[in-house]
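Study both lines:
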Amino acid sequence: MSRFTVLHLTDLHLTRHPDDMHHGFNAWQRWQQMIEHCLLSPAADQPRPDLLVLGGDLAQHPEAITYQALRQCLDQLDLPWVCVPGNHDDVSLMRQLWGDSAGLPCADQWQAGRWQLLLCDSTADGDGRGSGSLSAAALARLQYQLQHPQAEHQLVVLHHHLLPVNSPWQDEVMTGNAAEVLALLDQAPQLRGVLCGHVHQAHHWRRGHWQMWSTPAVAAQFAAGQPGFLLEPQPALQAPAGRWLQLGDDGSMRTSTVYAIRGST
């Protein structure tokens, strides 16, 4: 059985200057460390991905110089890639700089064999604290895509989480209209899974016929299950991280988190 391999990297929080810090870590160094680990010098048993999916919060402060530097890095990878925006991103600026040659905000789906990836913008109606929602147009587009699938199996990608992670400060800024989104997903029998970022932690949920995963960050990691903000204290979970997914023709999904140290969890 053939499998389509996806590498999901999210929450880069890249800075304007390469030496600037994000929560005490150098975001550009962590990005380069992750790219080196997964793509340039991978482990012998690690597959090369068929697609790189960037999960939003690509920049800490959305400026042209940061997006242009990231685009230069991506162009050197010789690898198809798509992205969704996060609450730290500027969708209009991304579209202006990247045009139609990149993923969302310039595209809303990607097809590979028997799989269709639905790329959703969850940054509407932000409150400046990290929240976001699917706009009415984005919600309508998702509904149409779910009701008129172009492949046997579908995977939804968005930045904000749809289900609680039991950290009050983070659940206050989850997808604002999550109930509406969940109602659509629950009615789509071909849906297999949902990918998100935003929480800087790894989580897994099962909901009826589909599953959802959050991917830990390339930038600083946050401690799970906390009433307020706290950086991850466990050294093993502090490294830049991402998620591998292998999507089978039969609709199966194999997934694991990968940290920029040898080995994965």
Notes: The mean pLDDT is 93. Residues 70 and 76 are 10 Å apart (CA to CA).
